[in-house]
């Protein structure tokens, strides 16, 4: 080989080695940068989470300053039947709902008595609710009445900013939203700054999410308030059955008809967009109930109206609200029984399945497993199904987990929805083992979830599902829904009391875990709420608590187990507490 060719070959090899070395350095540098970027992102995420926690704690402290709890119910009141509303709004609402012990929201509550749309409902029909008034002087007058209702002295808004409020006698309001005609009747020097909270925040604090009657009278800010409620209504975070909304504009001498009509049409458009409501009536101070002349307009939720009626006020028939057709989109029938490698394998977290089988001693039983996750991990029902030929109903709201359940081909019905007797849909926070309904997930679990990872899911009552399945006796009900246990149980109360369906054994997770330790105080509160519930239902005994990893005792165990006395006494002479079974 010539010297030239040798030199050329050496040069090529040298270049190749340099390129390889350079490539290695580039790869190392890229990986280092990626690791650094990932670390910075994780660090930022942790800082963001801490900042969010601080903000939530601060908001809770802020709301506690302005939210007053209800006074005890006052008995032996004079003029208990006296009505205070301007155009019989309270009477109209009661005629529609025919309900004792309802819950109202009264915004623009004034002094709590003058022209009140809710005081008669509270005193005569044992209602409670939430009174919202931004004027601190009027809040003091409300407090003197000692009403059996929550009182919020603030404005309602989806924005957390404070607002400027002009104080007035009956026509005060938020300066940015009070209409041109009302503002002429006010002294604009009489201004104050008031805080604002969203309705979701307030309802979370109160623990109520269904509103029977919403009275809205805020002197021109009606649409501002309603827009702040749009997300909550659309996502089922709360529900409202009846609305009475003042829309008429008065300039101090006469009705401003064109502006009033404009307000009415905007309200109609809003409720059309929300869906599920119809205009029931207009309420007037005189006989003129034409558009633009009446004082209030009343909207009613179709589902609430048609529960007890066949026709709307105009004579047209109610739609078929029987959920049979809709539920079929979310309810999948059982797969055929098929052989598996290890039917004796248990998946439950703390031997719930084994304990239940030892109590019931039954093959071919029926379970309801709510919070079913992927159908296998920590499942309290899979061993019963495979080993003892049980079937049942798996309920999971997260669509991604439903798809994983379906891959198992379980011999059980699968409902991909939430369980509720009042809600049509809810906002669900997706997570691995800790997902749940946004409004019900407890404050400790919610810190472990990404609040942007949410999905809207439909809801059905258990009665509707059981009607479709044609099964009304449940041998075992497993309940694990990360803080929503009481909400689920309350939706079952009527069915249990009326024996529309029956349940023999319950295992209910009540322990609260913050990611590091048991939150004992919250866990005990949950356990006591469950004990109170089953005492009120009657016919049940607390059988035992199911520990996990040697943590046992009130507030420390994972689950509590309740048994139906009638079932238990068929196989035993004594109840779990040692008392003889009734004979």
UniProtKB/TrEMBL annotation:
<keyword id="KW-0812">Transmembrane</keyword>
<dbReference type="InterPro" id="IPR006342">
    <property type="entry name" value="FkbM_mtfrase"/>
</dbReference>
<feature type="domain" description="Methyltransferase FkbM">
    <location>
        <begin position="369"/>
        <end position="526"/>
    </location>
</feature>
<keyword id="KW-1133">Transmembrane helix</keyword>
<dbReference type="GO" id="GO:0016197">
    <property type="term" value="P:endosomal transport"/>
</dbReference>
<dbReference type="GO" id="GO:0005794">
    <property type="term" value="C:Golgi apparatus"/>
</dbReference>
<keyword id="KW-0472">Membrane</keyword>
<dbReference type="InterPro" id="IPR053202">
    <property type="entry name" value="EGF_Rcpt_Signaling_Reg"/>
</dbReference>
<protein>
    <submittedName>
        <fullName>Uncharacterized protein LOC111104747</fullName>
    </submittedName>
</protein>
<feature type="domain" description="Methyltransferase FkbM">
    <location>
        <begin position="106"/>
        <end position="273"/>
    </location>
</feature>
<dbReference type="GO" id="GO:0005789">
    <property type="term" value="C:endoplasmic reticulum membrane"/>
</dbReference>
<feature type="transmembrane region" description="Helical">
    <location>
        <begin position="21"/>
        <end position="39"/>
    </location>
</feature>
<dbReference type="Pfam" id="PF05050">
    <property type="entry name" value="Methyltransf_21"/>
</dbReference>
<dbReference type="GO" id="GO:0031902">
    <property type="term" value="C:late endosome membrane"/>
</dbReference>
<dbReference type="GO" id="GO:0006888">
    <property type="term" value="P:endoplasmic reticulum to Golgi vesicle-mediated transport"/>
</dbReference>
<dbReference type="GO" id="GO:0005886">
    <property type="term" value="C:plasma membrane"/>
</dbReference>
<dbReference type="InterPro" id="IPR029063">
    <property type="entry name" value="SAM-dependent_MTases_sf"/>
</dbReference>
């Amino acid at each position: 080989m010539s010297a030239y060719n040798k030199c050329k070959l050496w040069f090529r090899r040298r270049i190749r080695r340099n390129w390889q070395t350079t490539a290695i350095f580039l790869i190392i540098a890229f990986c280092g940068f990626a690791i650094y970027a990932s670390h910075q992102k994780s660090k930022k995420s942790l800082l963001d989470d801490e900042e969010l926690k601080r903000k939530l704690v601060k908001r809770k402290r802020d709301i506690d300053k302005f939210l007053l709890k209800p006074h005890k119910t006052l008995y032996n009141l004079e003029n208990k039947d006296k009505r205070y509303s301007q155009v019989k709004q309270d009477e109209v609402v009661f005629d529609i709902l025919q309900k004792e012990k309802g819950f109202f929201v009264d915004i623009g509550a004034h002094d709590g008595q003058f022209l009140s749309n809710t005081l008669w409902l509270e005193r005569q029909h044992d209602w409670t609710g939430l009174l919202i008034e931004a004027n601190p002087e009027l809040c003091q007058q409300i407090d003197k009445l000692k009403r059996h209702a929550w009182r919020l002295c603030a404005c309602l808004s989806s924005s957390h900013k404070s607002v400027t409020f002009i104080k007035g006698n009956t026509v005060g309001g938020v300066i940015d939203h009070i209409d041109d005609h009302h503002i002429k009747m006010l002294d604009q020097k009489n201004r104050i700054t008031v805080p604002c909270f969203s309705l979701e925040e307030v309802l979370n604090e109160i623990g109520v999410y269904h509103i029977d009657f919403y009275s809205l009278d805020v002197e021109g800010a009606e649409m501002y308030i309603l827009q702040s409620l749009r997300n909550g209504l659309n996502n089922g975070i709360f529900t409202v059955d009846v609305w009475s909304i003042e829309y008429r504009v008065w300039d101090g001498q006469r009705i401003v008809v064109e502006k009033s009509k404009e307000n009415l049409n905007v309200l109609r458009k809003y409720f059309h967009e929300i869906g599920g409501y119809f205009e029931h009536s207009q309420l007037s101070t005189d006989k003129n109930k034409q558009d633009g002349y009446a004082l209030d307009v009343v909207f009613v939720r179709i589902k609430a109206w048609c529960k007890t009626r066949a026709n709307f006020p105009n004579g047209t028939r109610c739609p078929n609200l029987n959920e049979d057709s809709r539920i079929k989109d979310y309810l999948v029938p059982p797969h055929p029984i098929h052989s598996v490698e290890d039917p004796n394998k248990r998946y439950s977290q703390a031997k719930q399945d084994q304990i239940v089988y030892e109590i019931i001693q039954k093959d071919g039983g029926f379970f309801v497993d709510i919070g079913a996750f992927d159908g296998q991990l920590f499942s309290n029902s899979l061993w019963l199904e495979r080993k003892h030929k049980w079937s049942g109903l798996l309920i999971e709201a997260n669509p991604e987990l439903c798809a994983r359940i379906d891959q198992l081909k379980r011999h059980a019905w699968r409902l991909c929805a939430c369980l509720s007797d009042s809600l049509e849909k809810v906002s669900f926070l997706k997570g691995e083992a800790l997902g749940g309904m946004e409004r019900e997930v407890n404050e400790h679990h919610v810190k472990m979830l990404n609040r942007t990872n949410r999905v809207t899911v439909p809801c059905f009552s258990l009665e509707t599902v059981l009607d479709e399945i044609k099964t009304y006796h449940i041998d075992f009900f497993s309940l694990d829904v990360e803080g929503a246990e009481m909400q689920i149980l309350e939706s079952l109360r009527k069915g249990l009391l009326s024996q529309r369906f029956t349940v023999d054994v319950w295992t209910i997770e009540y322990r609260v875990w913050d990611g590091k330790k048991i939150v004992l105080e919250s866990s005990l509160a949950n356990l006591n709420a469950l004990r109170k519930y089953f005492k009120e239902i009657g016919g049940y005994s607390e059988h035992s608590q199911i520990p996990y990893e040697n943590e046992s005792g009130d507030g420390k165990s994972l689950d509590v187990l309740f048994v139906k006395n009638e079932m238990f006494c068929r196989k035993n002479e004594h109840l779990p507490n040692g008392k003889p079974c009734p004979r």
